[in-house]
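Running this now, will post back.
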Amino acid sequence: MKRLKIIALVLLVLFVGMQFIPTKRNQIGMIPMTDFMKIYDVPTEVSTILKTSCYDCHSNNTQYPWYNKVQPVAWFLENHIEEGKSELNFNEWENYSSRRKKSKLKSISSQIKKDKMPLSSYTFIHGDAKLSESKKEMVIKWIDTLRDSL
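Update: finished.
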């Protein structure tokens, strides 16, 4: 019993200690001129869907939930956001080459069609980010039309 108390105390101290290790914040506080939404005339409905379902992980302006201050959750979020931005960053869209833009648009469409995006781990907590079939169709149709026009 004494051993169990020692283990619990050590785990508690480690957990409390982790809370003092800071993480980076993914917030630049502005929308740059290179942002996807500033480059294209995105319909309001599509814009709302992208901001709700994509921008937290695929931009430089994450809207953090209350639990982002709790470790080790904050580390998981930071890693997840960095991975998402390395694949696609809507805030840096204009810096992509024409070929890369077309490739990214094709990938966005494909990922949505295959229900790979938004991630289920994200929509589990952010229910409003889950895409209905009609929302998927709307975004895919607009993205495909945009890709064809480039």
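The chain is about 55% helix and 0% strand. More later if anyone needs it.
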